[in-house]
Amino acid sequence: MFQTLAYYATVFHRSFVGYTTERLQTLGLNFGSLFPVIYVGKHPGCTQAELTAALHLDWGYSQRCITKLVETGFLTREKSSRAYHLNLSEKGKEAFAASHQVFFDWDAEMLTALDETEREQLFSLLTKVIRKEAESSCMKRSKAPSTTEG
């Protein structure tokens, strides 16, 4: 069990969630808000449907998350014809910068035992695994029909 990719992925995920939660708490964000804030920061004016599809989120979860981010002042939501367009507020821009940076900071802490060549090798091998497995059944999302398409 301890010599499996699944074990290491779980350990790293728990570590990253804890690290991110601690870093973003001061801004009033939680781990669940991390990816929506980053997505809107990289895709200003996107719709909630675009965000939901791109992040592979459940529509209900996406709705609750976006509503909370709007209510807490991280996002703005403006209606244009039939769709709402999302943008970062000033508070959201600060959160975006911190959310984006947390990836690099966590990596720096986690990879201190590796030299530059080893880091390059690690990322090269992980990229190879991701590319190979991107088409496998364990990497695909369920394709069950949804009644909440938006």
Layout: helices, strands, pairs:
Layout: H1 5-25, H2 31-42, E1 46-47, H3 48-54, H4 59-71, E2 75-80, E3 83-88, H5 90-110, H6 116-133
Antiparallel strand pairs: 1-3, 2-3
Helix pairs in contact: 1-5, 2-5, 3-4
Verbal overview:
There is one protein chain. This protein is mainly α and 150 residues long. The protein has a single domain (5-133), classed as Winged helix-like DNA-binding domain superfamily/Winged helix DNA-binding domain (Arc Repressor Mutant, subunit A, Orthogonal Bundle). It contains six helices and three strands, in the order ααβααββαα. It has a three-stranded antiparallel sheet. The longest helix has 21 residues, at 5-25. The radius of gyration is 18 Å and the shape is globular.
Care to give the gist of this entry?
The protein has 150 residues and is mostly helical. The protein is 61% helix and 9% strand. Helix 1 (5-25) crosses helix 5, helix 2 packs across helix 5 (90-110) and helix 3 (48-54) packs across helix 4.
Largest sheet: number of strands, sense, barrel closure: 3 strands, antiparallel
Low-confidence stretches: 142-150
- Contiguous helical run count: 6
Kindly state the percentage of residues in helix: 55-70%
Number of strands: 3
Number of domains: 1
CATH architecture: Orthogonal Bundle
How far apart are the termini? 41 Å
Can you tell me the CATH superfamily? Winged helix-like DNA-binding domain superfamily/Winged helix DNA-binding domain
